[in-house]
């Protein structure tokens, strides 16, 4: 019971935005992970790049804020990882598209 009470009253407990912010922020990497099943042509490269920058900035914020917010850091590390994977899928799809275009031009 003391452990639960200590967590409840801690500076990163459920009474604070240090807890609820990252909790709801987990929807971003979860949605990105679900999008990995979609075709790479459906990826918005602009939005994916913005999400990469956003997560990189907030990883630093989560590390330097006092009290240090490891919950938020883990969330943004996860989001950065999935967004970079999505970006790599888009780049590979573009390379494949460009190669097909070159092959079609070479046949003419």
From TrEMBL:
It comes from the Eukaryota. It is found in: Mitochondrion inner membrane. Signal peptide: none annotated. It is a multi-pass membrane protein. Its main location: mitochondrion. The chain crosses the membrane at residues 43-63. InterPro entries: MPC. The keyword ATP-binding does not apply. GO terms for cellular component: mitochondrial inner membrane. Pfam families: MPC (PF03650). Keywords: Membrane, Mitochondrion, Mitochondrion inner membrane, Pyruvate, Transmembrane, Transmembrane helix, Transport. GO terms for biological process: pyruvate import into mitochondria. Belongs to the mitochondrial pyruvate carrier (MPC) (TC 2.A.105) family. Mediates the uptake of pyruvate into mitochondria. This is Mitochondrial pyruvate carrier. It comes from Arachis duranensis (Wild peanut).
């Amino acid at each position: 019971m003391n452990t639960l009470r200590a967590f409840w009253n801690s500076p990163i407990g459920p009474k604070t935005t240090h807890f609820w912010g990252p909790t709801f922020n987990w929807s971003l990497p979860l949605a990105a992970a679900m999008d990995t099943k979609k075709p790479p042509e459906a990826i918005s490269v602009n939005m994916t790049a913005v999400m990469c920058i956003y997560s990189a900035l907030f990883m630093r914020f989560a590390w330097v804020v006092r009290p240090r917010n490891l919950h938020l850091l883990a969330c943004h590390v996860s989001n950065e990882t999935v967004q970079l994977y999505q970006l790599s899928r888009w780049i590979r799809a573009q390379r494949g598209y460009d190669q097909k275009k070159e092959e079609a031009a070479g046949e003419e």
